[in-house]
Specification:
CATH architecture: Roll
Largest sheet: 5 strands, mixed
Strand content: 25-35%
Strand order of the largest sheet: 2-1-5-3-4
Number of domains: 1
Helix content: 25-40%
CATH topology: Ubiquitin-like (UB roll)
Structural class: alpha+beta
Shape: elongated
Radius of gyration: 16 Å
CATH superfamily: Beta-grasp domain
Oligomer: single chain
CATH class: Alpha Beta
Length: 93
Amino acid sequence: MIRVEVAFARPDRQEIISLNVEEGTTAVEAVKRSGIVAIFPEVDPESDDMGVFGKVIKNPSAHELRDGDRVEVYRPLQIDPKQARLNRAKKKG
């Protein structure tokens, strides 16, 4: 067994759930087993982007976790960062 964490955050709340899983468990499996979907119903393990310690995982359903990994589930962006910068620049000017 290995120890991993699953993390998700919204502006108003964040959770980090620790759990023990078998070696070979993927990021998606860990998110499903963590129960984080019960806390944050907007989390969709099958389609949400994920990372391990801030590094994006290209294929979470195939990425096997190692002892001590923290899987982070990312929220979709509300606005493109380039557009947000442009909007801020227009407000200043």
